Amino acid sequence: MMRVKHSLLQDLNFNDVEMTAGGNLKDSPLAVILLSDKYDSLLAEEADRIRREVYSDEVYLRGLIEFTNYCKNDCYYCGLRKSNSNITRYRLTEEEIISCCKTGYELGLRTFVLQGGEDPYFTDEKICSIISSIKGLYKDVAVTLSIGEKENESYLAYYKAGADRYLLREESASPSHYALLHPENLKAERRKECLKALKEIGYQVGGGFMVGTPYQGVEEIIADLKYLYSLSPDMIGIGPFVSNPDTPFAHFKSGSVELTLRLLSILRILFPHALLPATTSLWTLDSNALERALKGGANVIMPNITPKRVRDNYRLYPGKKNTEKEAAQTVAELVSRISAAGYRAVSSKGDVRRI
Ligand code: 5AD
What we know:
single chain, alpha/beta, TIM Barrel, 6-stranded parallel beta sheet, 9 strands, 12% strand, binds 5'-deoxyadenosine
């Protein structure tokens, strides 16, 4: 048993010749692990051992505020794409956003994630004002932004206003695969430049990708793992692609929950310190996957504290859960599920623990 585990870890070591020397990736040990369910319990067990070593049994909660569903982009997989006329667009006011934070703070949340489409209405000035209001009111919280590709000066301005973290999934590290998921004006290269700039500014940075997007094979997944390994992000968000009928990818099937869970464990083994969320898309496809993710390496959950009135309209994909619940109920339920799974939801900023 120990021997298998040891060789598995060696196989996952990115310094391995077969990972770096061109060759046929399909035959690489990592590809074999990705394509088989044989190692799943071993991977989860090892991932959990590592997460307990670095983060003990703590699970960090992030209050997710989806403050605008307007988007100037037209990504083929996403329900917020500008060409989708089947959703009702909304924007929260600064007061509404602050009120979400107030509710969240009272519930013990110490990180607020401001997520939105790329909405030009929210100028840098508006974003900075929101950030500094939150940070002015609450000294012991972290503000995370998830608002897409911006100019470096904008990233710098948000950071100076008090933003601590930035989530920008690379979506696909392979330029040719990226081009199949996005319109012509969006480039993998630009995405990577943004991530680099964010790191240089000093943000705690989150990357990640969807599992099971159209045209994604094992080579593309490995390209993402390698890219993330070189980026060394603080957070990595992965979730299954969920097919959305309101997009050009309506006829593709959703990604696999099993493969996502397997990858989560692999990520924990490769990135012992990383903050790894059990993402909403994962438990949207399979409710039990929340507990399975926690037991296989995940250490972050992002309860949605967006006002109920608009929550259903932030429709990246269909089937979103909890749209009828108040923030307090959402948080309470998650806290009890976390403890039933053998972990502990803590009221803390939950910064990355670099070793
Ligand atoms: N299925 C799953 N995840 C999606 N996202 C966007 N559309 C979908 C979809 N159809 C993810 C993207 C984005 C994050 C906010 O949501 O990876 O970065």
